[in-house]
Amino acid sequence: MPEALLQQITRPSQEEKVEEKIEEEKAEKAEKKEEEKRDEDEKDEKEESRENIKEKDKIEAAPEEPEEREQTAPRGRKTANSQGRRKGRITRSMTNEAAAANAAAAATEEPPPSLPPPPEPCE
């Protein structure tokens, strides 16, 4: 029987186990928070260093060629129409433009007849 008493004394009670688990969970949460903070700090430092490098590059590159920038064309399919080559095709818009030009030319040659003055209202 003395052995049974010794075993009971050395075994932790159920309450102690629960308390230990809670403490372990708290410690794990604290460690996770610390790791997250470290990760965030590292990310922030990396971003800041990248931004600083970009700013330095801009500052260094800007004085060398400030006015010589190439215009970037919109990126899309390189069709004949987008490159300005219609290969002799006359489109509707081209005929409309030609008709408008002809009408404008005709209007400048012959002025329209002047309208008579409007009649005065009778009292």
Distinctive features:
123 residues; mainly alpha
Lay out the secondary structure.
Layout: H1 2-10, H2 14-64, H3 92-109
Describe the structure in your own words:
With 123 residues, the protein is mainly alpha-helical. 63% of the residues lie in helices and 0% in strands. It starts with a helix and ends in a 14-residue tail after the last helix.
SS content category: mainly alpha
DSSP, total strands: 0
Tally of DSSP helical segments: 3
Specify the overall morphology.
elongated
Distance between the termini: 136 Å
Return residue spans where pLDDT drops below 50 for at least 5 consecutive residues.
none
How much is the radius of gyration in Å? 43 Å
As a percent range, the share of strand residues is under 5%
H/E element sequence:
HHH
Can you give the mean pLDDT?
76
Please outline the major beta sheet: none
Helix content: 55-70%
Give a quick summary of the entry.
The chain has 123 residues and is an all-alpha fold. The protein is built from 3 helices and no strands. It has a domain at 1-60.
